[in-house]
Design goal:
Number of helices: 3
Number of strands: 8
Largest sheet: 4 strands, mixed
Structural class: alpha/beta
Strand order of the largest sheet: 1-4-3-2
Shape: globular
Helix content: 10-25%
Order of helices and strands: EHEHEEEHEEE
Length: about 120
């Protein structure tokens, strides 16, 4: 009945759009997608990458970052991405518990947990 994942939505605090754009658009290289007019009134930002990857960041007044729930994002260059994040001041936490993959965790600028994976 289901055919694919359309997007993952994460929450963010009011006023965080500049940091989100710098991180997801600048640092991770995703393309910002224009939100429909009615949804744009709510704030936030949407981003798109290759192979159908789409992340929506929605504004939540009583925001608390996701510490357990997270998207798992594939990369072909885990070491290069880790170095890029670290150079920008983000902490990278390696984890070798997922068979068949190398991976690490890092937080976005508002504290949401992100998992980055590279298949072996």
């Amino acid at each position: 009945m289901l055919s694919a994942l359309h997007h993952v939505q994460l929450a963010a605090p009011p006023g965080s759009e500049p940091e989100l754009r710098a991180f997801y658009g600048g640092l991770l290289g995703l393309t910002e997608v224009e939100k429909p007019a009615e949804l744009a009134k709510r704030g936030g930002a949407w981003f798109r990458g290759p192979n159908g990857l789409e992340l929506h960041l929605g504004i939540e007044q009583d925001f608390r970052p996701a510490r357990k729930a997270h998207p798992g994002l594939l990369t072909a260059d885990l070491d290069g991405l880790a170095a890029r994040l670290q150079a920008a001041g983000h902490t990278v936490t390696p984890d070798d518990l997922f068979p068949g993959h190398r991976r690490f965790y890092a937080d976005d600028p508002v504290g949401n947990r992100l998992e980055f994976l590279q298949p072996l």
